[in-house]
Amino acid sequence: MKKLPLLLLVLFLIISCNDKTSNEKIKTKRTPNSFAIVIHGGAGGIKPAYFTETQQEAYTQKLEEALNAGYKVLENGGISLDAILAAINIMEDSPLFNAGKGAVYNSDGNQEMDAAIMDGNTLNAGAVAGVNHIKNPILAARMVMDSSKHVLLSGKGAEIMAKKYGIEMVDSAYFFTEKRMQQLKKLQGKEITTLDHTAFLIKNELIDDHKYGTVGAVAIDKNGNIAAGTSTGGMTNKKYGRIGDVPIIGAGTYANNLTCGISATGTGEYFIRTVAAHEVSNLIKYKNYTPSKALNEVLFNQIGSLGGEGGMILIDKHGDVYWDFNSSGMFRGYKKSNGESKIAMFEKTN
Questions:
Q1: CB atoms within 10 A of CB 204
Q2: What is the DSSP letter of 205?
Q3: Residue 28 has what pLDDT?
Q4: Is 214 a catalytic residue?
Q5: Which of 214, 230, 232, 236 is catalytic?
Q6: Residues 214, 234: Cα–Cα separation, whole Å
Q7: In contact, 213 and 244? CB cutoff 8 Å
Q8: CB atoms within 10 A of CB 167
Q9: Residue 296: inside a domain, yes or no?
């Protein structure tokens, strides 16, 4: 009879633990028909001192416009793939960001743009690299995914196929901005004396190029399907046909309904070497890391330890939004169907 109270106590503890686990699962389950979108406009040496109030307001307004464009698609029952296209198109059409219209110049004085998109439901993906005349490279990446058997097309071949499928093409003059040209001339014509993150101080003259210019978006739609996309103009003064992490699926862009969707921005070579976006997904899937822990592990212990810098945005299968960066700032924002929304540049808070 003395053993009975002990047995009852053990049973009570087991039931309590099971109830707690069940409650935790219920709390993390995605609310039916809920949706969310998160975007970024580049990371790097983004500090308040580098931007006037007018410039900060301009970035805030454009990020808000991109968020609202993607959110509207989701709100109206559209799919996550279409939502991230809507958001990224806004940023590609703005000279504020190093993608599309605002793309930086390579060492030859031309723009070479990359973009990628991935469907977390099917694991289908499409990407383009080194394109010069496609107005919105993210649309070409979607075309590769939907209309070809391939994942990555580059250069002239990508442009031939884009034109074939009606993607808008433009003369290279469309991408010209005086700001980007001056950045190239200053880098090529003067000796770099100090390097502070991505803010180049050349003979005491600060170049207005303090971030790794990439734009990206991740969304989850009412059906629970996740999509991720990224677009970039690469690095100012890049040589030899350099291609970064953006069009490399699993490095700068990744989506999987079983875990999360990710878009990255930063020193691409390090994101490629660590297969950064896929590594975050794997840590969540196989080690049961929380998204926050997985992002921190990859950005600080893997990329950071190699000397790389940048950030990532993420939406997990529950519809929760996360971001992290090991640089001083990242242009970013999110909007969720429960009414939560935020746009940030400097402070490191969710």
A1: 7
A2: E
A3: 65
A4: yes
A5: 214
A6: 7
A7: no
A8: 22
A9: yes
- Is 260 part of a structural domain of the chain? yes
Non-local CB neighbours of 12 within 8 Å, separated by 6+ positions: none
Residue 292 and residue 323: Cα distance in Å, rounded? 8
pLDDT band at residue 247 using 50, 70 and 90 as cut-offs: very high
* Count of beta carbons in the 10 Å neighbourhood of residue 72: 15
Cα separation, 253 vs 127, in Å, equals 10
Which of 113, 133, 333 has the alpha carbon at shortest distance from 234?
113
Cα distances (Å, whole numbers) of residue 180 to 22, 101, 187, 332 = 54, 10, 11, 22
The SS3 call for residue 32 is coil
Q: How far apart are CA 290 and CA 283, in angstroms?
A: 8
* 36 in any annotated domain: no
230 in Cβ contact with 264 (< 8 Å): yes
Q: Determine, yes or no, domain membership for 81.
A: yes
Spatial separation of the C-alpha atoms in residues 183 and 102, rounded to whole Å: 12
Give the N- to C-terminal CA distance of the chain in Å, as an integer.
55
Q: How is residue 228 written in tokens?
A: 């991720």
Residues 305-339: tens digit of each pLDDT: 999 999 999 999 999 999 999 999 999 999 999 99
Domain with 77 in it = 50-339
- pLDDT value for 196: 35
How many domains, in total, are found in the chain? 1
Contacts of 303 (CB under 8 A, 6+ apart): 266, 267, 270, 271, 274, 276, 309, 310, 326
Spatial distance between the Cα atoms of 102 and 46, rounded to a whole number of angstroms: 17
- Which of 36, 28, 1 has its CA nearest to residue 334? 36
- Can you give the CATH number for the domain in which 59 is found? 3.60.20.30
CA angle 317, 330, 168 (to 5 degrees): 75
Asked whether 346 and 48 are in contact (CB, 8 A), the reply is yes
- How many angstroms separate the CA atoms of 253 and 138, rounded? 12
